[in-house]
Amino acid sequence: MTRGWIYRLETHEPVTPPQVEELRALAEAARLPLGVLQDAAGQQFHGVDPLVGGSSAAKAFVHKLDQLPADQRVRLLHFVDSLLPADSAEDEQP
Fold first, then answer.
1. Tell me: the pLDDT tens digits for 7-16?
2. Are residues 38 and 61 in the same domain?
3. What DSSP state is assigned to residue 84?
4. Do both 32 and 60 map to the same domain?
5. CA distances from 90 to 2, 64, 87 (A)
6. Which residues form the domain of 25?
7. How many domains does the chain divide into?
8. Helices 34-46 and 20-30, interaxial angle, to 10°?
9. Which of 21, 45, 56, 84 could tie 17 with a disulfide, CB 3.0–4.6 Å?
10. pLDDT digits (tens, 9 = 90+) for 25-74
11. How far apart are the C-alpha atoms of 94 and 92, rounded to whole Å?
C-alpha cells in the first residue's frame, strides 16, 4: 500500500481493490479492527452490503446463524420477534 494509493482512495480516483494483506496493514496503522475495513472495502469495491449497525456481539451472532439449519433459524426468529414490541419486529424470514 503506497501513499499514492491512499491519496487516490481519498480523492475518489480509480484504485485497485486492496488485498487482505493491505487491509491488515491499513487496519494496524489506523488502529481499527480488520473486519471494519473488510466491510468497508467489500461495500466500496464489490457492492457487498455489510451488516450495518449493531454491536460486535450482534454481528458475531448473525454470522453464527448460518451454521443453524433453516428450520431452527425460523424458530429462532419467531422467538426473537416474541421478545420485541410489535412495532419493532421485522417481517423478514431467513
1. 887 888 888 8
2. no
3. S
4. no
5. 44, 20, 8
6. 3-46
7. 2
8. 130
9. 45
10. 989 999 988 888 888 888 888 888 777 666 778 777 887 887 889 899 89
11. 7
